[in-house]
TrEMBL record:
It holds the Pfam family OmpA. Residues 1-20 form the signal peptide. PROSITE patterns: OMPA_2 (PS51123). This is OmpA-like domain-containing protein. InterPro entries: Bact_OuterMem_StrucFunc (IPR050330), OMP_bac (IPR006664), OmpA-like (IPR006665), OmpA-like_sf (IPR036737). Gene3D superfamilies: OmpA-like domain (3.30.1330.60). It is found in: Cell outer membrane. It comes from the Bacteria. It comes from Gaetbulibacter jejuensis. Keywords: Cell outer membrane, Membrane, Signal. Residues 245-366 form the OmpA-like domain.
Length: 366
């Protein structure tokens, strides 16, 4: 009560001073005011820029291989010697006593009969002179008559023999004659007898070039990128005064507690932000400072970084809700502002450590 009274007296005494200094007019006793300078307003525009030109490249089409199999020698043929008498066994070996053959039987040629008509004398014509009978003239030439006479051609049929089919042969197979002979073969090699050890082979696979490597020309299109630029939409700088509750000017603890070594906001923490900070920011133009802390466990530098990450988590969440980042300040204090005795080396419960993993906020002038 005493503090409120002093504050009221100070406000009454300072009315004329506030007018001279550009302070809020007609302030209410017990109220606090923060000066808010309107921020520049920005908007984002998108532009499409060519970030890489079109060009032509050569692409190598690799050679195509195929797999082939080859039989290779892996052990050369050799000889060995044994020193025991040979043991023989008798086997029957089949062989062809008389090879098969094919006998040939001759099929004689066959003939036919035919005939052709041939012209043996051609058709003829010409003038013939005849002496008329009973010619009264002594000179017979006086009784000569010229006649044009034509004789037909003369033909004769000539028979001949034709070949109906030429002589051929028919094959008559005769089966081979097989039999066997007995042969004594070595069952167990004798000592000091030379034994041939055959060569050994194996099949290997290898790859050979089926199609040599080639190149193809490929046109790479230009690359474009849409760039979002922030441009000034409205110039700020106008000073206004916002009435706030006085306790908001001091650090206020938000009931946001983090897991050990984590900056993740839980759904419960997001709900606290929605119910506490968002209404304050949406209903006024004030700016706030987010202050995050850690417990004493762990490296000091690590805790400093972790606390900054925790403050950034709150700021980023508020930005995702539409609050301008220019109205938000994130500060991490690490383990430098513990709320209890749980400093380095002090044995504390998990609940006591958790109270130090906190986030605070306060309203600030901007």
């Amino acid at each position: 009560m005493k503090q409120k009274l002093l504050l009221g007296l100070f406000l009454l005494a300072g009315i004329s001073f506030s007018q001279a200094q550009g302070l809020p007019e007609n302030p209410e006793p017990g109220k606090c005011y923060v000066k808010c300078i309107t921020k520049d307003e920005f908007k984002e525009v998108e532009e499409t820029l060519q970030v890489y030109p079109a060009y032509t490249t050569l692409q190598v089409v690799p050679a195509v291989y195929k797999t082939v199999e080859e039989t290779v020698l892996v052990k050369e043929a050799s000889k060995k010697y044994v020193y025991t008498p040979a043991v023989y066994e008798t086997v029957e070996v089949p062989y062809v006593k008389k090879e098969g053959r094919t006998d040939l039987r001759v099929v004689p040629a066959t003939f036919g009969k035919d005939s052709n008509t041939y012209e043996v004398y051609p058709k003829t014509s010409g003038w013939e002179y005849k002496i008329l009978e009973d010619c009264p003239s002594v000179n017979k030439e006086d009784c000569v008559a010229a006649c044009f006479v034509e004789y037909p051609a003369q033909f004769r049929d000539v028979p001949f023999t034709t070949l109906a089919s030429d002589a051929t042969t028919n094959g008559i197979p005769v089966d081979e004659q097989s039999t066997t002979y007995k042969k004594r073969v070595i069952k167990t090699p004798a000592r000091m007898d030379e034994i041939e050890i055959p060569a050994e082979y194996t099949t290997i696979t290898r790859q050979v070039v089926e199609t040599p490597a080639t190149t193809t020309s490929v046109t790479v299109p230009a690359k474009y990128e849409t760039v979002t630029r922030t441009v000034l939409a409205k110039k700020g700088g106008i000073t206004t005064w916002e009435e706030v509750e006085c306790e908001l000017l001091n650090p206020t603890v938000l009931p946001i507690f983090y897991e050990l070594a984590s900056a993740r906001l839980t759904p419960a923490s997001k709900k606290v932000i929605d119910e506490t900070l968002l209404p304050l920011l949406n209903d006024s133009n004030v700016s706030i400072e987010i202050m995050s802390h850690t417990d004493s466990r762990g490296n000091d530098d690590y805790n400093k970084s972790l606390s900054q990450q925790r403050a950034n988590s709150v700021v980023n969440y508020l930005v995702s809700k539409g609050v301008s980042r220019s109205r938000l300040t994130a500060r991490g204090f690490g383990e430098s502002r513990l709320t209890n005795r749980c400093s380095n080396g002090v044995d504390c419960s998990e609940a006591e450590h958790q109270r130090n993993r906190r986030t605070e906020f306060r309203v600030i002038n901007n």
